[in-house]
Structure formats: C-alpha cells, structure tokens
Write a structure and sequence with these properties.
Rna Polymerase Sigma Factor, Chain: A, rod-shaped, single chain, mainly alpha
C-alpha cells in the first residue's frame, strides 16, 4: 500500500475517533484486503482470516478513542493481525488439547470398562467350569485350555476317544447354558 493510503488511513482514523461511522466503513473497506492477506499468510485458512479481519474492524470501532497509530497505520494493522492470529492459534491449540484430553479420557474409560467386563466374564467362566463334573471339566480343560488332541486327552485320562468327545460336548453344552450370550 502506498503512502497515500497511510495518509488517508490516518485521516479516516481521526474521524473514526470522533465516532464517524462512514469513515469507519471506508477505513475497513480500504484495509480489508491488506488485513486479509496478512492474516491468511499466518493462518492459511480463508474463513478464519475473514473472521480475523472482521474482529479487527470491530475492535477498532469499540476502542476507537484509545487507538494510537503513531508508528503508521499499516504497521499498527500488521501488529493487530499478528496479535489476533496468535490469539486464534492459541485458542485452536488449547481446543485441540482439550479435545485430545477428552478423547484420551474416553479411551481410558472404554479400556477400563472392557477390563472390568473381561474380569467379570472370566469369573463367570471359572464359576461355570467349576460347576462341571470333574471328568468333564478335565476333558474340557485339556482340550481348550491346554490345546491337547483328543487322542492325547484319551491317553491321559485313560478313556477312549469317543468318551473324550462326549465329555467335551457335555462341557460345552453346560457352559452355553450358564454363560451369557453376546
């Protein structure tokens, strides 16, 4: 922007300080692109940059009596953009941190809930297994928990393979009755 714009900006600000709404509208129109370009360089987001321009214009009107642009209008506006965009970036980081913290808490709650459910299910399974007759329980444990073959179980228990199958079938049937369905 040229020096001419700075002088016009200075003159408009003097009128704005006196409450001149037309001067305010002209000032915002004159510097809107300048503000937007500077904001967008920092934010890389057009919508947020437009919001920054609007916020700065509102701030100028609300604080018109105390505005000091002794270092030049453009320098003052660059500082205003820098301050406003920095504030917006801090807010976004804080919001992102809060969202991440909330997501982490939700994950912890879900994990704790699953842990409790698994613990309760484990207790139910142990209770259901302990209610099975000893020979049927032994065949089930050897098959499902120790991963032994039917032949190995038959040899260890001293019974035939068909009897092992019958014990395992009985165990599964009893467990299905006693355990909740999901």
């Amino acid at each position: 922007m040229s020096n001419c714009h700075n002088h016009i900006g200075d003159d408009l600000l003097k009128l704005i300080k006196k409450g001149d709404e037309l001067a305010f509208a002209a000032f915002c129109d004159l510097y809107r692109t300048f503000l937007f370009v500077n904001a967008n360089k920092r934010l890389q987001n057009e919508d947020e940059s437009k919001d920054v321009v609007q916020d700065i214009c509102i701030w100028i009107w609300e604080h018109r009596a105390s505005i000091d642009v002794s270092k030049g209008v453009q320098a003052w506006l660059r500082g205003a953009v820098r301050n406003k965009t920095s504030e917006l970036i801090r807010q976004k980081i804080a919001r992102r941190n809060r969202e991440q913290h909330f997501a982490d808490q939700q994950t912890q709650i879900v994990q704790m809930s699953r842990h409790i459910e698994m613990k309760e299910l484990g207790a139910q399974i142990n209770s259901a297994i302990s209610a099975i007759s000893p020979a049927t329980r032994q065949a089930f444990i050897l098959s499902y928990l120790e991963d032994k073959s039917l032949k190995e179980i038959a040899e260890e228990m001293g019974i035939n393979v068909q009897s092992v199958k019958n014990h395992i079938h009985r165990a599964l049937k009893q467990l299905r009755k006693k355990l909740p369905k999901k």
